[in-house]
Design the sequence.
């Protein structure tokens, strides 16, 4: 194992108790520098992790663990991209090089991983609601401890954050929300909230007065039992008299403090000490810079440095793997180029994404047609109903949401789109097992939850050409709710820009003839099945492959052909077995009286941890080798039966 250098003071910190007991306030800046250097060294080498977000909260991380008695005091990080420093300070420094790797530590806070992770946060905007629940649970059990939610300005755009604020403000429970404002999520933040926070940050009137106010707040602890009253008066004075716009938070009964420099660890520590003594719900607004302290990320492209891969920590050069030859494109880029191509011919097409414009490549359309492309912030529910509104008035919205995130808008899919039979095209990026992000981000449930919805067409292309054709088909007249699901990563085809053509709804296709048994697949995982069949043929096995292409509606003509010809059938899908494509085929068998021996391959009934896609496919038994092993078993059964019949 490679040895990573650890700073003199950081080496003495195994757990936050060491930080609190061994070091003075004046030593915290050096500890922050050493923590940042360690993050840069490890992540530049392993190259599979998020980067800028955790660098931006190094000082906050040190201050929080210095002030609060963790793990007894609760800190909830929203979203977990910013929690790398937290993991290093809480007993996981020596395992940090395994971050996001198979059998390593998770890239997000995870309850089963550490007592210092009181709540799992892979998706954003959950921290306020979770922290409020914790405060009420402790109140009911008579426990006294502090509760802190750390939420970014991007995550604050999520509707659930507002719901949590609204509820928390009505209860007067002790909780601290730290608003980490770096004006950036993965793509630049959008919306009125961003403008509002910017107004607070740059207000000359506010900043002229706030320094004096914080001098007073810095001495609050000296006021003894009247501290809460004094803080309240000071807070009301500055925001009520000098900055009317701050009333948004205060109208929800939160005491608002800030904005303050999130990179001054000494001042931040002193402020947190004072805020510990103030009762009730409160918000501390800190200003940070994503990628802070590492020159290339601090001043470079923040989207690139969100997750840069392997890079030279001294020069900042991104180390890219040289392709062996021309490579197939990523599925997301095929989507991005194709939607521009379609929108140039169909003026009704509009593009919508909840804060993932670059991640899903809708930024191509955003650049070409900004007036027809909308990034709505981290707000999946709004994205779906907003799309429904567009469709209700005759537009054709392509609503691109990661499969895992689409789960958050399930009600809107049913209530606002499907019941009204509106032509919203859902492009589900990152369908299937996504790799290093792990259980919170795998898109394994979409085929199952989409196919149960009336009026919905649900399909998955086997390659880039099929993706283009399904997108073309979805924007034709009167196609209704239409879900197209495709995976993370590269496709299969070098020459993928083929002429667009319509695909018959509910039509599958035969990919390969065979006589002994059949494989039914859906989506690009069918290419793993094809590899397995090619190996099987070398051993004189005869296997047919059918690409179902649609899980709803099913190609019943194709299925009748399969079950009339084959007594042994294998289904393969990069999704959950329960309720997925294999379940749909079982239902067809039962309804039509077929008695074939059906083996379903897919994601088992459990949550899958992180690892590369290939490693996880192998673990679940549906990579090429796993499929081949199943073929061996089934062919053996078939041939043993035939041998028995011949003997008779």
Sequence:
């Amino acid at each position: 194992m490679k040895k990573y250098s650890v700073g003199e003071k950081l080496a003495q910190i195994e757990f936050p108790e060491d930080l609190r007991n061994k070091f003075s306030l004046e030593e915290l800046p050096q500890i922050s520098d050493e923590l940042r250097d360690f993050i840069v060294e490890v992540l530049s080498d392993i190259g599979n992790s998020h980067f800028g977000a955790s660098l931006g909260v190094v000082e906050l991380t040190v201050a929080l663990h210095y002030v609060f008695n963790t793990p007894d005091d609760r800190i909830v990080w929203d979203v977990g991209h910013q929690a790398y420093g937290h993991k290093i300070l809480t007993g996981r420094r020596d395992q940090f090089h395994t971050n996001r790797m198979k059998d390593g530590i998770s890239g997000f806070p995870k309850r089963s991983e550490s007592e210092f992770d009181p709540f799992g946060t892979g998706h954003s905007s959950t921290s306020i609601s979770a922290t409020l629940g914790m405060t009420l649970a402790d109140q009911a059990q008579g426990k006294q401890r502090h509760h802190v939610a750390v939420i970014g300005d991007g995550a604050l755009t999520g509707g659930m954050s507002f719901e949590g604020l609204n509820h928390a403000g009505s209860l007067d429970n002790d909780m601290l929300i730290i608003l980490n404002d770096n004006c950036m999520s993965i793509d630049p933040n959008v919306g009125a909230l961003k403008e509002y926070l910017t107004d607070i940050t740059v207000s000359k009137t506010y900043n002229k007065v706030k320094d004096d106010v914080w001098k007073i707040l810095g001495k609050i602890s000296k006021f003894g039992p009247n501290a809460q009253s004094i803080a309240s008066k000071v807070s009301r004075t500055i925001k009520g008299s000098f900055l009317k716009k701050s009333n948004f938070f205060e109208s929800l009964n939160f005491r608002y403090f800030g904005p303050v420099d999130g990179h001054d660890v000494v001042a931040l520590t002193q402020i947190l000490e004072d805020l510990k003594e103030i009762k009730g719900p409160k918000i501390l607004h800190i200003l940070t810079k994503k990628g802070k302290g590492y020159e290339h990320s601090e001043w470079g492209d923040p989207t690139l440095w969100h997750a840069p891969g392997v890079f030279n920590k001294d020069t900042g050069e991104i180390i890219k793997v040289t392709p062996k030859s021309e490579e197939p494109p990523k599925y997301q880029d095929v989507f991005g180029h194709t939607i521009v191509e379609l929108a140039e011919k169909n003026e009704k097409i509009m593009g919508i994404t909840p804060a993932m414009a670059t991640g899903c490549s809708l930024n191509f359309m955003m650049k070409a047609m900004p007036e027809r492309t909308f990034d709505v912030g981290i707000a999946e529910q709004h994205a779906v109903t907003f799309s429904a509104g567009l469709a209700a008035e005759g537009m054709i919205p392509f609503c691109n949401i990661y499969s895992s995130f689409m789960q958050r808008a399930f009600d809107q899919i049913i209530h606002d789109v499907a019941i009204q039979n509106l032509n919203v095209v859902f492009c589900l990026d990152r369908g299937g097992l996504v790799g290093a992000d792990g259980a919170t981000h795998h898109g394994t449930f979409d085929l199952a939850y989409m196919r149960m919805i009336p009026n919905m067409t649900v399909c998955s292309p086997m390659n880039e050409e099929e993706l283009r054709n399904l997108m073309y088909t979805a924007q034709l007249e009167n196609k209704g709710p239409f879900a197209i699901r495709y995976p993370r990563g590269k496709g299969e085809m070098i020459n993928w820009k083929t002429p667009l053509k319509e695909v018959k709804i509910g039509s599958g296709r035969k990919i390969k003839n065979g006589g002994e048994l059949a494989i039914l697949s859906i989506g690009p995982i069918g290419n793993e099945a094809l590899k397995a069949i090619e190996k099987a043929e070398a051993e004189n096995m005869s296997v047919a492959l059918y690409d179902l292409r649609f899980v709803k509606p099913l190609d019943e003509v194709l299925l009748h052909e399969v079950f009339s010809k084959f007594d042994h059938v294998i289904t393969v899908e990069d999704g959950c077995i329960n309720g997925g494509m294999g379940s749909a085929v079982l239902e067809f068998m039962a309804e039509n009286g077929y008695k074939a021996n059906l083996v379903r391959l897919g994601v088992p009934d459990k949550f899958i941890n992180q690892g590369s896609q290939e490693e996880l496919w192998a673990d679940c038994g549906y990579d090429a080798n796993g499929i081949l092993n199943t073929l061996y078993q089934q062919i053996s059964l078939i041939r043993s039966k035939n041998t028995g019949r011949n003997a008779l």
Q: What stands out?
A: Residues 204-216, 218-225, 240-246 have pLDDT under 50 and may be disordered. The longest strand covers residues 568-576.
